[in-house]
Amino acid sequence: MILEALRYPIIQAPMAGGPSTLALALAVTNAGAMGFLATGYGRAETTRQEIRELRSNTDRPFGVNVFIPAADHFDEQAVDVYLQTLDSEARRYGVEVGEPRNEEDEWSSFFAVLVDERPPAVSFTFGCPAAQEIAELQAHGISVWVTVIDPAEAVFAHAAGVNALIVQGVEAGGHRGGFEDRLDGEDLALLPLLRLTAKACDLPLIAAGGIADGPGLAAVLSAGAAAAQIGTAFMLADEAATHPAHREALATSAATGLTRAFSGRQARGIVNRFQVDHADAPRAYPQIHYATSPLRAQARKLGDSDGFNLWAGQAHSLAKARPAAEIVEGIAAGAAAALEDATARVVGKGDG
Amino acid sequence: MILEALRYPIIQAPMAGGPSTLALALAVTNAGAMGFLATGYGRAETTRQEIRELRSNTDRPFGVNVFIPAADHFDEQAVDVYLQTLDSEARRYGVEVGEPRNEEDEWSSFFAVLVDERPPAVSFTFGCPAAQEIAELQAHGISVWVTVIDPAEAVFAHAAGVNALIVQGVEAGGHRGGFEDRLDGEDLALLPLLRLTAKACDLPLIAAGGIADGPGLAAVLSAGAAAAQIGTAFMLADEAATHPAHREALATSAATGLTRAFSGRQARGIVNRFQVDHADAPRAYPQIHYATSPLRAQARKLGDSDGFNLWAGQAHSLAKARPAAEIVEGIAAGAAAALEDATARVVGKGDG
Q1: Cβ of A256 under 8 Å from any chain B Cβ?
Q2: Which of A39, A104, A129, B83 yields a CA-CA distance of 20 to 30 A from A119?
Q3: Cβ neighbours of residue B45 under 8 Å, at least 6 residues apart?
Q4: pTM score, two decimals?
Q5: In whole angstroms, what is the distance from residue B182 CA to residue A272 CA?
Q6: Of the candidates A191, A199, A313, which has its C-beta nearest B219's C-beta?
Q7: Tens digits of residue pLDDT in A256-271
Q8: Cβ separation of B345 and A221 shorter than 8 Å?
Q9: CA dihedral in degrees (A145, A149, A155, A159; nearest 10)?
Q10: Is domain B1-69+105-242 classified as CATH 3.20.20.70?
């Protein structure tokens, strides 16, 4: 099992749409943790090149994250109404609202690249591949991981044959990675989610959400996770391509909130003007992602942190600007110290 | 410091409105953890008798929880509208809707009882006493704890001079215990909340929310907590007075959600008909608590779990029906084992 072979039980979260870079994945991997490529909105052939480049620069295990094509029902009329509310944003930024298209379904090309290039691990977001696809990837030596946000999804993915689960709590930054963007349903926080999932199935669990320092890592390992997937804490890494205005916001103690304003799918970001002004955005992913794309691009260009998505987990103010390898080593050393302290608190207290 | 004198770093959460009993507090205390009296809707003289009875039965430390009188602004018109929607409930249960009163302000009588009876610890919910009051309680040998749900409240309570903080994550069952019932604001989950609070002030932190087994306790200790406050996991204890229909619901994997339907203040319960039908309940505590009181009492009498509040934390399905002492010992033993496993995962892995 890959997870057991890592020096540190730390997985760098794939952060599509900016922060994730090949340099970040490489630095994390070479530091003894596990880097990930975020293919989110990329194309299959780009992914092929990135896997090759990463492999030629390290002999340690790394991973590739792939989005499962969206299948959620959406209300076309609600999207039309929402697009009209974006007109004022278009005027503000002097660009046109984007076409609310669905991306071309590149699933088959992505799948072919994975089978050809055989990255050590592939994690899936927004769904679970079919059992046959999972088996085919595994037959090519790939460890298959699926992101879940509740125990029912975990049981489903377990039955489909995955090797491990990424268990994402509601405190996580960026998109909620479960199978569907539910309009209701319980927003499970990481700690209860880990315990409920461990009770429901016995796969290795990779904990994600709000883990940004050593005690955070120690906590999820104590709660039964085999490793932690850490995103926001790497956003200030030297090797990340996080926008300067986004970096500035991360360093504050600004509140985060869940929103569909930018992509049409629930995601957690630092609350800014756009998020507040479009609190009523409907569920329509990736249509709204493409509709807001030119607005976000222009806001980024202007350095206007009130106009684009500032994805961040709830613990973002703990992130530190330093090389990725130092982030890995700092978190691992902090975890060991935290476990020692905690152990002293429960063991050998005598008859107090 | 009381916390360091406990055999197990476990605090039994005060659970007003039913589950908490003197027998539960006593059993937990005598098992080497710390029992708590829930005075929530009680009267000062009852509390005096309970403190005396508890003290006469144990020489170990215990605590008393006191609600700070409500000060949140509420919208009278919204309350009137809500009361009208309760008419159908009144017809369903064949009782009258209660008077939406505020409770008599018993703060001064409660305070006098605390100073007279000097329980080892007092925890406050829904606010922070004045610095002078805190100092007076401490001068009488009482350890003063305040419940917080964000780092700003923690900093405020620290400045007021409290001895420890109960840090409550959004996954907790029952009422959100922060200073005010905010209509917006970030719903911090326990793990990031603990880390952000530890960064903001150096008081001992008692973690609350979603902790129901040994690995859960191990996790919060690893995240820097001095102890865990555990509620839902004690609701199935033999010594708890949890309603049979409530016990049944806790043993399922039913979803929980936040609601103001029962009390006018945000609280987490297992989603039932009443909670769904009154999803739009306004903020008006304790007015709505008193308005729904006869409805809830009648639903309890009928054993109708769709008509009263089924307070529960997100991890409720992990609760086990057994004597409280066994719950304490099971959680403590599980925590020690979980810490050992976690330590093996970060220490001495060599150059993997």
Answers
A1: yes
A2: A104
A3: B109, B113
A4: 0.96
A5: 19
A6: A191
A7: 999 999 999 999 999 9
A8: yes
A9: -30
A10: yes
